[in-house]
Every structure is written in structure tokens, then in C-alpha cells.
Amino acid sequence: MLKKPATPLQFNRILLTGAAGNLGQVLRPRLKAYCNVLRVSDQADIGAPGAGEEVMRVALEDADAVIALLQGVDAVVHMGGVSTEQPWEPILAGNIRGMINLYEAARKAGTKRIIFASSNHATGFYKQSETITPNAQPKPDGFYGLSKAFGENVAQMYWDRWGIETVSVRIGSSFPEPKDRRMLATWLSYDDLERLVMAGLTSPIVGHSVIYGMSDNQHTWWDNTPAKHIGYRPQDSSDVFRDAVEARQPTIDITDPAAIYQGGAFVKMAPHD
């Protein structure tokens, strides 16, 4: 975890949605360093509020509840919704209706900055032999990736029409360490996740910007040059784990679609199951 900034607090109240999820749990204690009040939300139980916290248990598909959730919020870190490949109905509820509800509530509340947890699966059908930038058009690898491509379009429309700024982060693989060879390219450390979120929240002007969420990995398929204005500078790298990962996975089946496409195993999942 990074040290608390020496500069004054940037925000009075930040909202973290999806606080019960894996990355929500990572960000919850970290975001409190940057605001007077951290409001945390999920439809699952997230426990009692800590010092300087507010807890609201809200389902994103409940429009009225989401309107209440955004009251008094200066900025949102939106990690909520379905975070894996699932059948269509839960994705429709959390990632499609929920996204519209969140942005409508932000518009009505006057909230002007959102960090949206998009995903690399919005572009999962580009090949691992390609290097793409955040300007790459979506090639989703399933219902989940499709919902994230939709979310990026929602963010664009709300910037163009109502001036709500968003940084859409196409998150790679954020875990304590890479689990396999694919993650050597897609890995995002927890500290770099924090750096990226805070860069997105504090950059003077972002409009609607898209950036890939990755650390400073030697091998990667993503070039974040078009997003340098955000000011994100990763400081960690998957390279320190390379020997251990390659020992666990000494060979790769290059005919496997999971090894051909950037989305990995997601390109083989059956979204209707």
C-alpha cells in the first residue's frame, strides 16, 4: 500500500462501488487516504463502516437506490457489477442497467469524475501477436466484454452531452502476482492499480479517456501512449515473477485459442452456460 499523500485531501466524499469484490477490497483501505469520507457500496454484505466510512448496500439495477447512493459524492470509483463471464441476465442487470443508473444518478447529483472499471475483455479478440492502443475499437470476447464495451460508450455519451469526465480502465489481471504466462503480459500490481485510479481522479482534464490497466511489464500487447495525459506511471513489473511462472508453465499450445487471442480463456467460455 502506498503512503498517504503529503498534499491536502483532494476530495470530500469518494464513492467506491463493488466494495465486496476482489479489487474493491483492495481499494477500500487505500482510497480512504484521499478523501474525508469514503462511501462504500455493494449488493453483498460489506460489513460495518470503518472510521471515515459510510456503508450503503445497493443493487445497481435499483435506479432509485443508486440515485440516493450518489448524493453528495464528488467522484466515483466504479468497480461494481458482474466481473466475470456469466449468463446474460445478471450482466444485463449489473453491467448494462447498472451502468445507466450510475451515470444518470451522477448527472442528477452533479458528480463530475468517474473511474470506470472496464476490462481488457472489451478487446479480447485481438491477437496476442498484435500491439494495440487504447484507441483500438472493441472486439469483446463474450457477454462480459460486450458489457464493458457498452459501458465505455455510456461514459463517452455522458461526457459529450453532460460533461461528466471518465477514465475507463481496461483492467488486465490484477492479483498479488501473475498466475501464468498470459499474465506476464497483462499483470497489474495492487500498488499500480492505486496509482492508476488516483492518476485518473486527479488529472486536471480527462474528458473520456481509455487506458489499459497494466504494470510496467517487459512483454505486453498494449501501448498506453495515447493515454499519457492521465499521468499514470507504473512502477512495478511482472518480470520479477517470470522464472517462477515459466517453471510452472514450461510450454504453450500455440494452437489453443486462449494462447492466440488476448482474452485468453475467456474466448472459449460459453456465455449461455
Q: Top keywords for this entry?
A:
single chain, 273 residues, alpha/beta, Rossmann fold, 16% strand, globular
Describe the protein in words.
The protein is an alpha/beta fold and 273 residues long. The chain has a single domain, classed as 3-Layer(aba) Sandwich (Rossmann fold). 33% of the residues lie in helices and 16% in strands. It has eight helices and seven strands; from the N terminus they run E-H-E-E-H-E-H-E-H-E-H-H-E-H-H. The protein has helices at residues 22-31, 63-69, 88-109, 143-162, 181-186, 190-202, 242-248, 257-260; strands at residues 11-17, 35-42, 53-57, 75-78, 113-119, 165-171, 208-213. It has a seven-stranded parallel β-sheet, sandwiched between helices. Strand 1, helix 1 and strand 2 (35-42) form a beta-alpha-beta unit. Helix 2 (63-69) crosses helix 3 (88-109) and helix 3 packs parallel to helix 4 (143-162). The chain is globular, with a radius of gyration of 18 Å. The model has no long low-confidence stretch (mean pLDDT 95).
SSE topology sketch:
Blueprint: E1 11-17, H1 22-31, E2 35-42, E3 53-57, H2 63-69, E4 75-78, H3 88-109, E5 113-119, H4 143-162, E6 165-171, H5 181-186, H6 190-202, E7 208-213, H7 242-248, H8 257-260
Parallel strand pairs: 1-2, 1-4, 2-3, 4-5, 5-6, 6-7
Helix pairs in contact: 2-3, 3-4
